[in-house]
Every structure is written in C-alpha cells, then in structure tokens.
Amino acid sequence: MNFDLQELSGTFSVTDIVVAMALSFILSTVIGYVYRATHRNVSYSQSYVQTLVIVGMIVALIMLVVGSNLARAFSLVGALSVVRFRNAIKETRDVGFIFLTMGIGMACGARFYTLAAVAGLAICLIIIVMHRFNWFHLDVQRQVVKVQMPTGEDHTAAIRDVLIRYTTEFELVSTETIRGGALTEVFYTVRMRKGTEPGELVNALQEQTYGQRVTVLTGYDQTDL
User: Which of 51, 78, 105, 138 could pair with 60 as two cysteines, CB 3.0-4.6 Å apart?
Assistant: First the structure.
C-alpha cells in the first residue's frame, strides 16, 4: 500500500497566499470602517463588523482551496450546506455588506487583485456618497400609537375624534384583546400635526379611555425594534 502524502499547495506560491489573504484583510477592514461610519440605527454590533473581516479572509482562503477544481467546488457546497445561521439580520443593508465582503474575498482568492481593490474601493465610495447626501430619503415621519381601552364599550369614535384633532392622517393597523379579554388594544400609524407634542396626544387619548395606558412611539422607522 502507498502511504505517500500528496502536497497540493504547489498549485499556488507562498506569495499568492500572502497577497490574497493580506489584500482581503485590508479591503474587508476598509469595508468594516465604512459600515461603522455610515451606520445610522441603534443596533450597531462590533461582532458583526469583525465577522465581515473574517468572512472576507475565509472566502479568499476557500477560493484558493477550490481553485479551478470543479469537484472541490461541489464538495465545498455540500459541506457548507450543513451550516445554519440563527442570528437574524436586522437590516437589509447589512446583507449587502456581507455580499460585498464575500465578493472581495472571492476576487482576492481567485487572484484578481486589481479587480478586488478597484471594485471594493469604488463600492465603498458609493456607500459613503449615499450616506453623505442621504440618497433616497423619504421625509415622512410617522408615529405608532397604541391605545388600551376597556372591553365592552366602543371608544373607537372618541379615539378617532382625538386623532383628527392632533394628526394630519392616521390608519388603523390592528385590534386585539389582552389580559384575558378585559382590555382591547388598538394600533394606529399617524402623522402628527406640526407643533403637536406626543404628550398632548397621550393625555387626550387617556381622557377618552378612563386613564388606560397609551403609548406613542416616535421615529420607529429610524429605530430598530
């Protein structure tokens, strides 16, 4: 029996390995800093940004391993298919950064160094420009109003009258019973009139619901819930 081990690392040089891993690390780090600088919401995660850097380097390594071997590529797909990710991505924007680091890692691992550098820096520049000039921003601020009222009495008309006085538009989102049916909870999305404070709306609604709990959530479209 032949127990000789076959060394396949000779298919690429040490220089290829160093350059691919170093460039993927540098570009992934730049992407991480761009993500941190352009992040708006409160759900910033240091571990997520570190993962971006790690993913870029790992994908570069995988591309070096796979090379042009089709059998290795299919074996890799089968091996990675057992991986399950349990953490939900809170923003669709975060998914874009993951794909960006994966693309950079693939380009570095395939030894398209110029493509990786130019494309990575160009896309980061576009992200910074979009953030700086606030592209595609819709200047419509809405609030969520949650009102609890005793079951058995119809307070809908009174609530609508209050919303008409304090908001420019409103829409009923949902209605449900809570506390074993003792209370009814309704959700509205509203646009408050200029000069109207949330506290004024809360007090006016509580007068109609016998002091039951009223919540006005302002800026929910810029905040992670």
Answer: 105
Asked if 196 and 218 count as a contact pair (C-beta separation under 8 A), the reply is: no
For residue 147, give the H/E element and its range.
strand 143-150
Ordered domains of the chain (ranges, CATH): 9-132 (no CATH), 143-222 (3.30.70.380)
Cβ(56)–Cβ(28) under 8 Å? yes
Global pTM reads: 0.67
Q: What sign has the CA pseudo-torsion 32, 136, 41, 187?
A: negative
Residue 154 clears pLDDT 80, i.e. is over it: no
Rounded to an integer, the average pLDDT of 89-105 is 88
Q: pLDDT of 187-202, one tens digit each?
A: 998 888 888 888 888 8
Of 22, 18, 34, the C-alpha closest to 121 is 34
- What are the structure tokens assigned to 79, written together? 């091996």
